[in-house]
From TrEMBL:
Residues 207-295 form the GerMN domain. InterPro entries: GerMN, LpqB_C, LpqB_N, Quino_amine_DH_bsu. This is GerMN domain-containing protein. Keywords: Signal. Residues 1-17 form the signal peptide. It comes from the Bacteria.
Length: 581
């Protein structure tokens, strides 16, 4: 089964229906009115408006399905008595575009019973929310057939609700909160965000739901790519509550036997994850005592930085490859060594390590491309790796004493390779399992996240994110997700703006530069003013301006909506900029 087929199998549910009578001929597709969204949920759960037609009952039922409070009580109001009592929707949620239609069934699906109507809902999914609270992006048609029956009081009610919830995008975002659940990289104490969604109401239980995510561990796609310091068997002793002094109390149990260092890391996981839902102090307890001796209440500023290895330092201005040489993005000068000076390498692409101390170079040599790695500004060691094409290198940091990390590239669009430092200073290549990604298409770009847990990949012109899963003797790019498939295409380059956000360059005239979260829930196009299309390269990093390259040179912008400004050093139309990583 192909990757797209496996993803599609997660998405939809079809419900049998019978017929149509005594209703309007159709309900035209309409957008959900924004002013209706985000209103407080009435705990009394009001009844639907009286005398709604069958088509509107289905439409309002779908919208009410986005309110999870009290076991989806708002949606149950649109069901008949038997269905309302029996309905136990599954944990997978299909999220559809705000524009959808409800129409009477036709042909064999109609019914002669004037008190029964088969209503067909037609829309397009943007993706699904899995049981673990992670969103999977996938555009696909959605069709539901719902039988609506007139009740004894004359009101139309749904008799066969779908087995899983279906809701419009705007209602979903109004009722669910995106949170960052933090875990740790496999071989360092760098935190890795895991984007998840939890019900926003009732507000009093929001923090507890986030703690529940941490206790349950990373989302399915990140299993094997990150570590959870909360041990198996850890739990909360009672609810997460707010103390009279305003502190948010997290009463843990099952963690008392962890070392002091591990308990500090557990504190970091919880406090950082709580930033999404509260600004209160977080009181961390273990069996009633402070989780960390002498430190009961926490705010984020109490924590050391857990992203040092994943963030280029301010003194690394970035580099650019132009006309076979590497220059500084800071002052435009050629860098020292054979990668920058005449008579040296004929550079096709390059990547600087996050600490700035090393440079990986793909060079043209003997009609092919080959990889070199070495100290910045000095000779680079040739790696036993060559091909007709090689993607721009990308670094994975490690916590080793020399900080050497790994250098990854893709040979001929088909073979993902990581190169490892040997004791004698050389570099040895090892193949990475990328079979799931190659089902989508040949790989033209691969950028490792600076925390090393994920890879952003361009395959067949589509943008994917996969997890980097390490076993004792192998590495696999697992659980790839196509982001905004069917909407975003012609992707030519991508980079990591932050640990959970990408920026991409495309050949699409309407959106040549876009910003997109790693779950693909939304897509934000940049302003196209001043750009000369097409854009062929892009680079980004935390706290840095985004730099793109078009036929006229380099342009910078801080975020979506800002007009692109000329870079101080344009370098011409064949420049390819890159920040460390």
């Amino acid at each position: 089964m192909t990757l797209l087929a496996r993803l599609f199998a997660l998405m939809s549910c079809l419900v049998l229906a019978v017929g149509c009578a005594n209703v309007p001929e159709e309900s035209q597709p309409v957008a959900v009115p924004q002013q209706e969204l985000g209103q407080p949920v009435n705990p009394d759960v009001p009844q639907p408006a009286k005398d709604l037609d069958a088509l509107t009952v289905v439409r309002d039922f779908v919208r009410a399905s986005a309110q999870p409070i009290s076991n989806n009580a708002a949606a149950r109001m649109y069901l008949d008595d038997a269905a309302g009592k029996a309905w136990t929707p599954g944990k997978v949620i299909t999220i559809i575009d705000d524009v959808f239609a409800t129409v009477p069934a036709a042909g064999a699906d109609t019914t002669a019973n004037p008190n029964e109507v088969n209503v067909v809902l037609r829309g397009v999914s943007v993706g699904s929310l899995r049981e673990d609270g992670a969103f999977i992006s996938l555009r696909a048609p959605v069709e539901l057939k719902l039988l609506v029956r007139r009740q004894s009081d004359g009101q139309w009610r749904v008799t066969n609700p779908p087995p899983n919830l279906v809701m419009p995008y705007s209602d979903f975002t109004a009722n669910y909160v995106r949170v960052q659940a933090f875990f740790f990289a496999q071989d360092s104490n760098t935190v890795v965000p895991d984007l998840r969604y939890v019900a926003g109401k009732p507000q009093s239980g929001l923090a507890g739901r986030v703690v529940g995510l941490l206790l349950a561990g990373p989302s399915t796609s990140l299993v094997g790519a990150v570590r959870n310091l909360l041990p198996e068997g850890a739990n909360t002793e009672g609810n997460v509550t707010t103390a009279p002094d305003g502190a948010l109390v997290v009463p843990l149990t099952g963690v008392a036997d962890q070392t002091a260092d591990v308990r500090r890391l557990i504190a970091a996981q919880i406090v950082l994850s709580m930033q999404s839902v509260t600004t209160n102090r977080v009181r961390l307890l273990s069996d009633g005592a402070p989780l960390v001796d002498g430190h009961e209440d926490w705010v984020p500023s109490d924590l050391p930085s857990y992203t040092t290895l994943a963030s280029p330092s301010a003194d690394q201005p970035g580099l650019v490859t132009v006309n076979g040489r590497v220059r500084s993005l800071g002052d435009g000068s050629l860098i020292a060594g054979p990668a920058g000076q005449s008579g040296g390498y004929q550079v096709a692409s390059a990547a600087q390590s996050i600490d700035g101390k090393q440079l990986a170079v793909v060079e043209f040599a003997d009609g092919r491309q080959r990889l070199r790695v070495g100290p910045f500004g000095k000779d680079a060691v040739p790696v036993d790796l060559a091909g007709a094409t090689m993607t721009r290198p990308t670094w994975r940091p490690t916590a080793t004493a020399d900080g050497s990390g790994e250098v990854w590239t893709v040979v001929d669009g088909q073979t993902v390779v990581r190169t490892l430092r040997t004791p004698d200073g050389g570099w040895v290549p090892q193949v990475v399992n990328a079979d799931e990604i190659l089902q989508v298409g040949a790989i033209s770009v691969l950028r490792l996240s600076r925390d090393g847990a994920r890879a952003a990949v361009v395959a067949g012109g589509q943008l994917l994110v996969a997890s980097v899963v390490r076993a004792q003797d192998s590495v696999t790019l697992r659980a790839p997700r196509i982001l905004q498939g069917g909407t975003l295409g012609g992707v030519v380059d991508v980079d990591w703006l932050s640990q959970d956000t990408l920026v991409a360059a495309t050949t699409m005239p309407s959106q040549p530069v876009v910003k997109i979260p790693i779950d693909g829930l939304r897509l934000d196009p940049f302003n196209i003013s001043n750009l000369t299309l097409p854009v062929h390269a892009i680079t980004a990093a935390p706290g840095r301006s985004i730099v793109v390259a078009d036929d006229g040179g380099l342009w910078t912008a801080a975020d979506v909506g800002e007009v692109w400004r000329p870079h101080p050093h344009s370098f011409g139309g064949n420049a390819s900029p890159f920040y460390p990583g």
